[in-house]
């Protein structure tokens, strides 16, 4: 799996990729949010993103769509992306270095309303 750096992630999202933030409420409250990200708890991520699931989010209809998972440092997100690939989402990947790499690259964060999906 080729992992994306922060700038590749930003460009992919601008081109239509789904950006999935799996950080906890506490982490997001302390660190900030990612503009354009959909927040999905890691424990329900697979059935929310699987196009075959009756519980998927509306955006998860195409197994070929690029999905980029983000966690705090890029460790759990790589495992999450591998899990999505095992479901057949062949373009699932993650942000190498996680949210911390995003911030280190000088990319914007927000404290505004989040798109949280349960």
UniProtKB/TrEMBL annotation:
<feature type="domain" description="Rhodanese">
    <location>
        <begin position="13"/>
        <end position="111"/>
    </location>
</feature>
<dbReference type="Pfam" id="PF00581">
    <property type="entry name" value="Rhodanese"/>
</dbReference>
<dbReference type="InterPro" id="IPR036873">
    <property type="entry name" value="Rhodanese-like_dom_sf"/>
</dbReference>
<dbReference type="InterPro" id="IPR001763">
    <property type="entry name" value="Rhodanese-like_dom"/>
</dbReference>
<protein>
    <submittedName>
        <fullName>Rhodanese-like domain-containing protein</fullName>
    </submittedName>
</protein>
């Amino acid at each position: 799996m080729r992992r994306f750096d922060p700038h590749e992630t930003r460009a992919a999202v601008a081109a239509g990729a789904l950006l999935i933030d799996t950080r906890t409420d506490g982490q997001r409250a302390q660190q900030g949010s990612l503009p354009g990200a959909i927040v999905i708890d890691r424990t329900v991520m697979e059935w929310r993103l699987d196009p075959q699931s009756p519980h998927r989010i509306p955006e998860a209809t195409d197994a070929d769509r690029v999905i980029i998972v983000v966690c705090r440092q890029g460790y759990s997100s790589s495992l999450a992306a591998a899990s999505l690939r095992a479901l057949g989402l062949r373009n699932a990947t993650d942000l190498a270095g996680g949210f911390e790499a995003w911030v280190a690259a000088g990319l914007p964060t927000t404290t505004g309303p989040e798109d949280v999906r349960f």
